Amino acid sequence: MAAEQTTLRTKRLYRRQMVDVCRYVVLALTLVSSLASLCLMYNLQHEPHRVRVDDISSVLRSEQVGRQAKYDRQLMHMGPSQPRATTATGRASASTEGSLHQQERLRHQAQEQLREQLRDRLEVIKSVPRPPDRAYNFNVSVSDAIRLDRDIDDTRPPACREVSYNLSSLPRASVVVPFYNEAWSTLLRTVHSILNRTPDELLVEIILVDDSSTHGYLKQPLADYVGMLPKVRLTRNVRREGLVRSRLAGCEIARGEIIVFFDAHTECNVGWLPPLLVELKRRPTAVLQPFVDGIDPVAMTYAKPLDVHKGGFTWDLRYGRLCCGVLWKWGGAVVQWCDG
């Protein structure tokens, strides 16, 4: 009997020791995560120009090539010109072809005029002084030198690229983008990426919600610029409301069946919206989180995605991706976005 009691005490003591060890491990991980976050913030704030020169030089060289050539279809999101009709000989056919030529010329003139107006308004935005890079926690100088409609690699898996969607059967979406004192280049690049890489028949509008920003370039210069873009609306909070209330303010005026929230420093990739709409049509009550690739805060290069896409929350409750072979699993079904 005494031996059994001794064994029981030993087991209890062992369990308590294991519980204490687990607590110490969790505490140590929390401290390491906090220190890593503090070090990252310190480096971004105090060494904003300690950059990889080769990466930035290659980015700027690529941006200088074709800077003026991209403003036709991608920048304006106005679609291709009407094709030239091939008709039989005859007076009626010649008249029809001449009418198409005239429409194409008028369309081209309108596009050229709109491009010039946008360039002028962008120069006004650039002329307004802004805070130094360290106020934004990323390299704004490099971002400002990159085109607003830059090309990025299609990072979808090969299987997803082969999936076709019946766009006419999908609900239409409104994109809500709250911002507060955002850099103009990242904000406008967000808008242009949505316009350039979203099917026109699926996009109702882009709603920019200004959470009472104080920077001058986000006032009238921004309003003049986005006022020239199709499907873009700008609303402003009377006072500072925060991220959640700003999103709700955009929801109140949204006209789309689906509402998509974007950060103001985001670039959507090719084919980003249809897979989400397919899943929402299948499960209307779902809240979806797509794959999120990274953008280097120093060189502003679009990062190569991980082979395994798994998201979670860090110890300070920020959303992040898991790597190094450690995966977190939580409740809910895993959605295969390309399974249309």
TrEMBL record:
<feature type="compositionally biased region" description="Low complexity">
    <location>
        <begin position="84"/>
        <end position="96"/>
    </location>
</feature>
<dbReference type="Pfam" id="PF00535">
    <property type="entry name" value="Glycos_transf_2"/>
</dbReference>
<feature type="region of interest" description="Disordered">
    <location>
        <begin position="73"/>
        <end position="110"/>
    </location>
</feature>
<keyword id="KW-1133">Transmembrane helix</keyword>
<dbReference type="GO" id="GO:0006493">
    <property type="term" value="P:protein O-linked glycosylation"/>
</dbReference>
<dbReference type="InterPro" id="IPR029044">
    <property type="entry name" value="Nucleotide-diphossugar_trans"/>
</dbReference>
<protein>
    <recommendedName>
        <fullName>Glycosyltransferase 2-like domain-containing protein</fullName>
    </recommendedName>
</protein>
<dbReference type="GO" id="GO:0004653">
    <property type="term" value="F:polypeptide N-acetylgalactosaminyltransferase activity"/>
</dbReference>
<dbReference type="GO" id="GO:0005794">
    <property type="term" value="C:Golgi apparatus"/>
</dbReference>
<feature type="transmembrane region" description="Helical">
    <location>
        <begin position="21"/>
        <end position="44"/>
    </location>
</feature>
<dbReference type="InterPro" id="IPR001173">
    <property type="entry name" value="Glyco_trans_2-like"/>
</dbReference>
<keyword id="KW-1015">Disulfide bond</keyword>
<feature type="domain" description="Glycosyltransferase 2-like">
    <location>
        <begin position="174"/>
        <end position="305"/>
    </location>
</feature>
<keyword id="KW-0472">Membrane</keyword>
<keyword id="KW-0812">Transmembrane</keyword>
